[in-house]
From TrEMBL:
<keyword id="KW-0732">Signal</keyword>
<dbReference type="Pfam" id="PF01593">
    <property type="entry name" value="Amino_oxidase"/>
</dbReference>
<protein>
    <submittedName>
        <fullName>FAD-dependent oxidoreductase</fullName>
    </submittedName>
</protein>
<dbReference type="InterPro" id="IPR050703">
    <property type="entry name" value="Flavin_MAO"/>
</dbReference>
<feature type="domain" description="Amine oxidase">
    <location>
        <begin position="43"/>
        <end position="477"/>
    </location>
</feature>
<dbReference type="InterPro" id="IPR036188">
    <property type="entry name" value="FAD/NAD-bd_sf"/>
</dbReference>
<feature type="signal peptide">
    <location>
        <begin position="1"/>
        <end position="24"/>
    </location>
</feature>
<dbReference type="InterPro" id="IPR001613">
    <property type="entry name" value="Flavin_amine_oxidase"/>
</dbReference>
<dbReference type="InterPro" id="IPR002937">
    <property type="entry name" value="Amino_oxidase"/>
</dbReference>
<keyword id="KW-0560">Oxidoreductase</keyword>
<comment type="similarity">
    <text>Belongs to the flavin monoamine oxidase family.</text>
</comment>
Length: 481
């Protein structure tokens, strides 16, 4: 098990300054038997519920799914030798202090993803790259021909951190940055810094095709916040162990599953939530509400009275990036014979996009492989437009172009498209160009209603973002008295 220093919430509260505002931690014991409803039993809602209970509030969590965890979801059915696939969150960077602190508190052991050399498949060429050697691609500038991804990051990305500001230290973004960069897609920012389209193929093969859609400010905020990232962890036995353990702490009797929220009523006296479930339509009332469901789902909920104009617009316009995944369990870890390894064993510009390797975090003694085609953006949209029963063939046909052994090696296959998920309708939040205003609007409380979820955090798409937002929402309620 990896050991990490324990970090108190009071210390953590001073670490993160997002959009220039930090939240002071209230004293415990001031809840005075007040009740809170939490919408959503994903990691954000569960974190908020757990923190509120520790502050003395009575909490009930309402969840539409028949399970807890939301987009932290480990699949164990259908695979041999006790192996599993991560349908949602895959990684924990070593700089995600909040996530690691929760793992430590809950006694969860961690495994480390191994480093290794990936296979590249770009412009129809399959190759492994050695730092210092020339990239075998046309269109690179003379400077880029031997430029490593690490050197590119230092020269074109990290060199701008002082200009942008730091969410952990002095606020993000600095004055003037919104006006300068809010309208710019991140790939265009890199072009402005001098990157050629040929080198952007290499960068996107490593980081995902998302770079051609996400806004510069959203990407850079995460880059600065995680600039010291070194090792990458996984929770032993599956990342869903984290929400499952928090749910146990909250108390399963306090979590109502398979309840679809249809209406939120709120005023100066309290809140009332209407939902449908196994017993038909029901209502619950409380003093406060934490809304920890994605805005893509909240759009279908009736709000009385309507939230403020900027909140209503944010709920309508917030964008969740699509992600399509094809999971392939293999008879062997055949790629290792060619010296290929690491978490991302194939980085491509094709429809399979990146191939992630979860084999190294499978149960001890297991020798089969577990890999996934991890698509996003236009690649995910193309994958998800195909009928579910045809996605296996689509995935295998794309992968065999660079791993010709894949059909003979396949033991089991599972596919999932997050755009098809009825409770999320997407995988994670991307703040698009000209949308920086959404950051403040999505976090802002509406009377007795506070908001949590990765969409309200600098760590959009990460378990850290869910936890950070849940703690913030709990602090906001406690500050209300």
């Amino acid at each position: 098990m990896q050991q990490h220093p324990r970090i108190s919430r009071r210390r953590l509260a001073g670490l993160f300054v997002w959009a220039g505002a930090a939240h002071a931690l209230p004293a415990c014991g001031q809840a005075a038997e007040k009740r809170v409803l939490v919408l959503g039993a994903g990691l954000a809602g569960l974190s908020a519920a757990w923190e509120l209970q520790q502050l003395g509030y009575a909490v009930t969590v309402i969840e539409g799914r028949d399970r807890v965890g939301g987009r932290v979801w480990t699949l164990r059915d259908g695979f041999e030798d006790g192996q599993f696939a991560e349908i949602g969150a895959v990684r924990i960077p070593d700089v995600h202090e909040l996530t690691l602190d929760y793992c430590d508190k809950l006694g969860l052991e961690l495994d480390t993803y191994k480093d290794g050399s990936p296979l590249y498949y770009i412009d129809g060429q399959a190759f492994q790259h050695v730092d210092g050697e020339a990239w075998p691609l046309m269109g690179l500038t003379a400077e880029e021909e031997k430029l490593t991804l690490g050197d590119f990051w230092e020269r074109e990305i990290a060199a701008t951190f002082e200009e942008f500001g730091d969410p952990r230290m002095n606020g993000f973004p600095k004055p003037g940055i919104v006006e300068k960069y809010d309208g710019m897609v991140y790939a265009d920012f890199l072009r402005m810094r001098g990157a050629s389209d040929a080198y952007l193929k290499i960068y996107a093969a490593d980081n995902g095709s998302e770079i051609s859609t996400i806004g510069t400010l959203a990407w850079m905020g995460a880059e600065v916040a995680d600039k010291a990232w070194g090792a990458t962890y996984h929770i032993r036995g599956g990342n869903d162990q984290l929400p499952l353990r928090i749910a146990d702490e909250v108390g399963l009797d306090n979590i109502l599953l398979s309840r679809k929220v249809t209406k939120i009523e709120h005023d100066d006296a309290g809140v009332t939530v209407t939902f449908s479930g196994p017993d038909g339509e029901e209502t619950l009332s409380a003093d406060y509400l934490v809304c920890a469901i994605p805005f893509t789902t909240l759009r279908d909920v009736k709000i009385e009275p309507a939230f403020s104009a900027d909140k209503t617009r944010a709920i309508k316009e917030l964008f969740l990036m699509n992600a399509g995944r094809g999971y392939i369990q293999t008879r062997t870890r055949f790629w290792e014979a060619d010296g290929i390894g690491g978490l991302k064993i194939a980085k491509t510009d094709g429809p399979a996009e990146r191939i992630w390797n979860l084999s190294d975090v499978q149960p001890e003694g297991s020798t089969k492989g577990m890999i996934q085609s991890y698509t996003q953006n236009h690649n995910a949209d193309a994958y998800c437009e195909i009928a579910p029963e045809d996605r296996e063939e689509y995935c295998l046909a794309a992968v065999e172009k660079f791993f010709p052994e894949i059909r003979a090696e396949k033991v089991a296959f599972f596919q999932y498209c997050w755009a098809d998920d009825p409770w999320a309708k997407g995988a994670w939040t991307d703040i698009l160009p000209d949308q920086w205003w959404i950051v403040a609007a999505s976090r802002k409380p509406e009377g007795r209603v506070t908001f949590a979820g990765e969409h309200t955090s600098v760590w959009a798409g990460w378990m850290q973002g869910a936890i950070e937002s849940g703690q913030r929402a709990a602090d906001e309620i406690a500050a209300m008295g």
